[in-house]
């Protein structure tokens, strides 16, 4: 496992590269920051702690919905939550993950 991706309730993506020992953070508004994991920190334990947080969800790949997709979701009244579940456009899935339009501040 080289990269593990999480998304938080604010819609920021966190990619942990286990080989390079880095964390890259991408906000839904374009900001990108990269951090080096400190020596002595066990990356696998860090991943486990993040996975246990109620405000972070593990995702396969970090990608933001397009503007067109967001418009369609709002029009249809259903959307994907940040963890991929299908929910109401302003809703939250059973796992506690908010819908993308809600995270992006559109609804």
Strand and helix layout:
Blueprint: E1 3-8, E2 13-17, E3 22-26, E4 32-36, H1 43-52, E5 56-59, H2 67-76, E6 78-80, E7 86-88, H3 100-103
Antiparallel strand pairs: 1-2, 1-5, 2-3, 3-4, 6-7
Description:
With 107 residues, the protein is α+β, with helices and mostly antiparallel strands. The protein has two domains: 57 residues, no CATH class; 37 residues, no CATH class. Helices cover 22% and strands 29% of the residues. The chain has a five-stranded antiparallel sheet, with helices on one face. The protein has a two-stranded antiparallel sheet with strand order 6-7. It starts with a strand and ends with a helix. The relative contact order is 0.18.
For the structure shown, list the relevant keywords.
5-stranded antiparallel beta sheet; 2 domains; 107 residues; alpha+beta; 22% helix; 3 helices
Order of helices and strands: EEEEHEHEEH
Q: Strand percentage, roughly?
A: 25-35%
Contiguous helical run count: 3
Average pLDDT for all residues? 91
Strand segment count: 7
The largest beta-sheet arranges its strands as: 4-3-2-1-5
Low-confidence segments, given as residue ranges, are: none
Task: Tell me the major beta sheet.
Answer: 5 strands, antiparallel
Distance between the termini: 36 Å
Rg calculated over all Cα atoms: 15 Å
Q: Given the helix and strand composition, which structural class is it?
A: alpha+beta
How many individual domains?
2
- The share of residues in helices is 10-25%
Outline:
This protein has helices at 43-52, 67-76, 100-103, and strands spanning 3-8, 13-17, 22-26, 32-36, 56-59, 78-80, 86-88. With 107 residues, it is α+β, with helices and mostly antiparallel strands. The protein has 2 domains: 3-59, no CATH class; 67-103, no CATH class.
């Amino acid at each position: 496992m080289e990269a593990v991706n999480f998304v938080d309730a604010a819609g920021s993506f966190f990619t942990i590269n286990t080989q390079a020992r880095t964390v890259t953070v991408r906000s839904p508004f374009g900001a990108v920051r990269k951090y080096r994991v400190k020596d002595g920190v066990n990356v696998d334990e860090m991943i486990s702690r993040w996975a246990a947080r109620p405000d972070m969800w593990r995702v396969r790949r970090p990608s933001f919905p397009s503007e067109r997709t967001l418009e369609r979701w709002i029009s249809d009244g259903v959307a994907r939550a940040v963890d991929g579940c299908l929910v109401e456009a302003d809703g939250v899935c059973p796992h506690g993950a908010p819908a993308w339009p809600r995270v992006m501040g559109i609804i």
